[in-house]
Amino acid sequence: MTATAPLHEVQPQSALFESILELIRRTSTQLPDDVVRAVTDARNDEEKGSNADVALDVIGCNIVLARDSSLPLCQDTGTILFYVHTPAAYDQLTFEEVATDAVRAATKKGYLRQNSVDSVTGKNTGDNTGPGSPVFHFHQWRETYVEVKLMLKGGGCENMNAQYSLPHPDLGGRDLKGVENAILDSVLQAQGQGCGPGILGVCIGGDRATGYSFAKEQLLRTMDEASDDPELAALEERVVEKANQSGIGPMGFGGKTTLLACKIGKLNRLPASFFVSIAYMCWAFRRRGANLDMQGNVTEWLY
Ligand code: SF4
Predict the structure, then answer these.
(1) Same domain for 218 and 262?
(2) Are residues 203 and 135 in the same domain?
(3) Residue 62: which of 53, 74, 54 has the closest Cα?
(4) Residues with Cβ within 6 A of ligand 1?
(5) What percent of the chain has pLDDT over 90?
(6) Other CB atoms closer than 10 Å to residue 268's CB: what's the count?
């Protein structure tokens, strides 16, 4: 039996670097098919020539233009979020270094606009890296390959995120009705800002930090993936239906398309608290992924 090779020998930097760079290019310039389908279907529901129809048409043109010219879908690069599953003993530090280098290279190539600034001075770092950028969420798993998913989450829609603590005097108690009211209130507060139509990721429970983080992770689900909890699946549908009756519409211009989807998950909570955390994603819903072998080569593109 041969000795196990050191991890740096089985992960040549170049293959991993090239794979992550291509993942960034695809994520920044090509919306996933399920999102494109949702935007197209929504446009078909709007009255021809209405403000909503025009807004969704412009969004559709933007999607095609970005894809065909390999240019960013939006001037806002967004928070660069990597979600990575690795086998036990995989060298996550090397992955982080290589992926950060790939972000620098992607910025230089124009796949990502320079959009990360020092929080106090406002000075642009010039390459989209710095404290907290990019963000890495690592998890180990028992598979023998690496799965990496990338989400670029815009700042405008991030501003529309909301967190509620139930019971709430106007929204209700610690039950699914209270949760539904909280989610719908966040949509009403947004009024199409954050570049709607929106897609919501929601977490019921957790603490304030894990709730927001888990809400964002719900956005890794595809548009048509319903919760496997029948009560939450019904709530997801109900929220979209009711939000779309609000008349807010794309960009707040009026119309039937206020939300494209709502994805709800739950975490355990303490008896003393009941948070509803809502991550609001804009129409520029950039998420892509890939499975990688241990050398860093793409074996399958996801989404
Ligand atoms: S919220 Fe989304 S669509 Fe709006 S500017 Fe930011 S990334 Fe672009």
Answers:
(1) yes
(2) no
(3) 74
(4) 74, 76, 78, 154-157, 194-195, 282, 284
(5) 95
(6) 7
